[in-house]
Amino acid sequence: TYKERRDLAVERLRALGWDICPPKAGFYLWAEVPPKFDSLGFAEYVFEKTAVVITPGTGYGEYGEGYFRISLCLPITRVAEAFDRWGHAQIHY
User: Fold this and answer.
1) pLDDT tens, position by position, 46-70
2) Interatomic CA distance for residues 30 and 44, integer angstroms
3) In angstroms, rounded to a whole number, what is the distance separating the alpha carbons of residues 69 and 5?
4) Are 25 and 7 spatial neighbours (Cβ–Cβ below 8 Å)?
5) What is the DSSP letter of 33?
6) Which sequence spans correspond to the domains of the chain?
7) Is the pTM of this model over 0.90?
8) At the topology level of CATH, where does 2-88 sit?
């Protein structure tokens, strides 16, 4: 279910150092980029290290800068695999 995917993503992001609250609705999760990155730079870094696509917040206007968006529309196994890759690549907040 969406809730299971959301809860998994929140749990895994927290384990990687993010301070994040679960969204109440929607198919996406927004999170802050680590301090040494802008949103586009972080999205590129994640893709280069893990082949996982995240959306940089800057694509949503000036107020999106500093954040990235994760889709929760994939099967839970794919969401888990993405965060496994983040862990192996030592991507953390």
Assistant:
1) 999 999 999 999 999 999 999 999 9
2) 16
3) 14
4) no
5) P
6) 2-88
7) yes
8) Aspartate Aminotransferase, domain 1 (3.90.1150)
